[in-house]
Amino acid sequence: MSAPQKTESLGESAARTAYDLLTAEDDGRVCRDIPEQLCDEQPRNFTTHVLSLSLTKTADALLNPKLILSWILTTLGASSFVGLLVPIREAGALLPQLFIAGRIRNLPLRKYAWALGSGLQGICAAAMALATVSLEGAALGWTIISLLILLALSRSICSVSYKDVLGKTVGKTRRGTATGSAATVAAAMTIGYAALIASGLFDKISIVITGLFLAALFWLTAGILFTSLRETAGATEGGANPVKVARENLRYLVDDRELRLFIITRSLLVSTALAPPFMLALKAESMQNNISGLGWLLLASSIASLLSSYIWGRLSDRSSRKVLLLSGLGGGVSLTLTVIAAQLNWLSLTWLLPVLLFSLMIAYGGVRLGRSVHLVDIADQDKRAIYTALSNTIIGIILLLTSLFSIVASLYGEAVVLAVFALMSYASMASAYLMREAQA
Questions:
Q1: Which tens digits make up the pLDDT trace of 150-162?
Q2: Is residue 100 within 8 Å of 201, Cβ to Cβ?
């Protein structure tokens, strides 16, 4: 008597169809490096990853501290807080990972940690929307900053848990496709949202508030969806505390010239991440009256990320050192031109600042890919975790210190801050030039 056939639900059938379309199965190694009992669940898990990540990446763009939150604060009389947004978001998502990694390691099923982090981000986004409706000035500024701190902490929970869950639920040859597909969907949705803002057909505050509420909905939905993953219990022992790893291996900062040069280069290139809010502040007055300017900036940023990622990735596989060097040059030129344009009052031209931001975000894309590939390639398997812990700790501290640029901006103006960022980008070229070819 034959075994009964397992019937697929409508949802499982749709998941398998999506999985087949995106992965284009052409070999038999679809279950590499995942528990054998999850092999049959891979189409469902793969699709869940794509849907969940698409929602959270889109939510990230709808909240975007560099542009959306910066516009809210500058428009509603809290421009003095703009310089705090990116340092808090980046350092707040980075440094806590060093302290919570061990605790998350103790959880057999880590999908619930990711779902919790996503849900908390959704609550923060909804609270930001309500604050934008009811507050302005310093009260709004402090509220947004406080909520952003909580959002960044929640994001760190997702960052720590996600790679482990992905590794247990999606095969080795399908992970890049899952994350890449989600990034593409999110980019398309962001471009559509940016086009709506750029059209100028909607009330300037209402459309941004609607975006924040949508971000909240997306994060909450993603968290619920993620809990449906079929995940096996993972090992809960053997997890090293990254803080302890960094403290016990400080000698590498003295002994390893390549690691020192990498950290110096990465530290100087944080300028490309910090600059956009200050660029937006240069046109704050005109954007208060015409929100379409924000739409064009968001559109420029989204298209730059979409177009540059693949090219920078290919170049990084050839020479991550040269990618970082070129990114420093590109960032420096973009910021220099921005300062010149501000001094000559050319930013009144509607198209100029979006073009300058587009070029800066191209450079920033190179920074993100180049630094990631270079760190992996300069370290062997035994040192990789040590180098990551050391560099993340130092960069997190530096990002917190960069919040002081908001004081510089309030005293001397945004153009001075952008000039300093341009010099930092140019300086990164020297240290990048001295690094060895990691791919040689």
A1: 999 999 888 878 7
A2: no
